[in-house]
Amino acid sequence: MKIERPRGTRDFLPEEMEKRREVEKRFREIVESFGYREVATPTFEYSELFKRKSGEGIVEEMYIFQDKSKREIALRPELTAPVIRMFVNEYSRPPKPIRVYYFGNCFRYERPQKARYREFWQFGVELIGSASYLADAEVIILAYNMLKSLKIDFELNIGHVGILRKLLSPLGERASKAMRLIDKEDKKGLMQFFAEQNVGRDIEEKVYRIMELKGGKEVIKEAKEIVEFDFNDLERLLSLLESLSVDYILNLGIARGLDYYTGTVFEFYAKDLGAQRQICGGGSYELAQLFGGERTPATGFAIGFDRVCELFSEVPKKSPVIVVVNFPGFENFAFKVASKLRSKGLKVVVDVMERSLKRQLSYANDIKASYAILIGEEEVSRGEFKVKDLATGKQFDVRAEDITTFLSELMREGE
């Protein structure tokens, strides 16, 4: 009986892995060009870490277990909390701001659906130590450039949690519940909550008006007529983005249901993913104090790596493959030639099935190899090899000492 893989997980075959590695490569090159350095945290943490960040409600979404010492452990459901825990415990002394990025798998126990899995990957950054709108600008520009590099169709929405919080401030602690409902886009639940809490008609109408405001920077003018708020940083942020030709929609209905978010928030939506269309989310926050550190401003984002890989349609460029084909009895020569070529950075395959010459060449065609090197008694005695271009059928006689140079030049010509 076959053993199936667990529900909500996937196997990635070579073609898919090549695509995923291409996306990862592009992301790494861009974040490192901005001065970000990679960090990594454990795959599992104490469950308390995520409860402090997201509340007890997250327990239903986590894989939680007890270790042999009866400690409650959770597979990480996201990576921001572990990175800030690491910052508080081990990395708070470097000069600010601290720029770090991460790439890793996460786990959530929820119903699997299109572009949503129980094991998934995040690629994200945290810029720690700056409360300036410039930090928000850098992080948004970085995410924008990363997604642009994949040539996918997306839309950037920018908001500010302070605006809705200012309107809801008369509710005191009850405002957090309203923000959670707005974050979930649960308008019916929000109306019911306002009714139960006897929220004044004036506040209710203003909240709904702000939630509907979408457009360019001109939206701020209308927002100023609804709520008394300092829009200066938001205006400067949008002006900076416009100067760099970053396309955005100002969406003042974006909210966050967690109190540690402090200001600018943003989301990237793909146009080809249906209901699960968010491919990146981020914003400014203060989280370190929840984990025993000093209150520290930060801005970050996480990209849903699996979702962007589904949208990425380019075929990654593959390195040309050389197949060393040997007559029986010349296996040692084949392995030596292959080692020599690999030492020069070439991708080389040698037969390990003890097949006939004809079948070795057939296999070379099956794997779409670029060239085959033929090794037999005649070639070894003359100190020459036959190199066959498998695309054209053309053959070359190449001296043994020139083989690496000859093939390297052929590869460059073919690029």
What's the structural blueprint in terms of helices and strands?
Blueprint (H helix, E strand, L loop, with lengths): L13 H20 L3 E2 L5 E3 H8 L9 E3 L5 E4 L4 H11 L7 E10 L11 E10 L4 H16 L5 E7 H8 L6 H9 L3 H10 L4 H12 L1 E2 L3 H8 L5 H12 L5 E3 L9 E10 L7 E9 L10 E8 H7 L9 E6 L4 H12 L4 E4 L6 H10 L4 E5 L1 H6 L1 E6 L5 E5 L3 H12 L1
Parallel strand pairs: 1-5, 7-9, 13-14, 13-15
Antiparallel strand pairs: 2-4, 3-4, 5-6, 6-12, 7-10, 8-9, 10-11, 11-12, 15-16, 16-17
Helix pairs in contact: 1-4, 4-10, 5-8, 6-7
**Helical segment count:** 15
- What's the CATH H-level homologous superfamily of the largest domain? Bira Bifunctional Protein, Domain 2
Our Rg estimate from Cα atoms comes to 28 Å
Uncertain spans: none
Number of domains: 2
Description:
The protein has 415 residues and is an alpha+beta fold. It has two domains: 14-311, Bira Bifunctional Protein, Domain 2 (BirA Bifunctional Protein, domain 2, 2-Layer Sandwich); 321-414, Rossmann fold (3-Layer(aba) Sandwich), CATH 3.40.50. 39% of the residues lie in helices and 23% in strands. The chain has helices at 14-33, 47-54, 80-90, 133-148, 161-168, 175-183, 187-196, 201-212, 219-226, 232-243, 305-311, 331-342, 357-366, 377-382, 403-414, and strands spanning 37-38, 44-46, 64-66, 72-75, 98-107, 119-128, 154-160, 214-215, 249-251, 261-270, 278-286, 297-304, 321-326, 347-350, 371-375, 384-389, 395-399. A nine-stranded mixed beta sheet has the order 1-5-6-12-11-10-7-9-8. The longest helix is centred in the N-terminal third of the chain and has 20 residues, at 14-33. The protein is elongated. The protein starts with 13 loop residues before the first helix and ends with a helix. The model has no long low-confidence stretch (mean pLDDT 92).
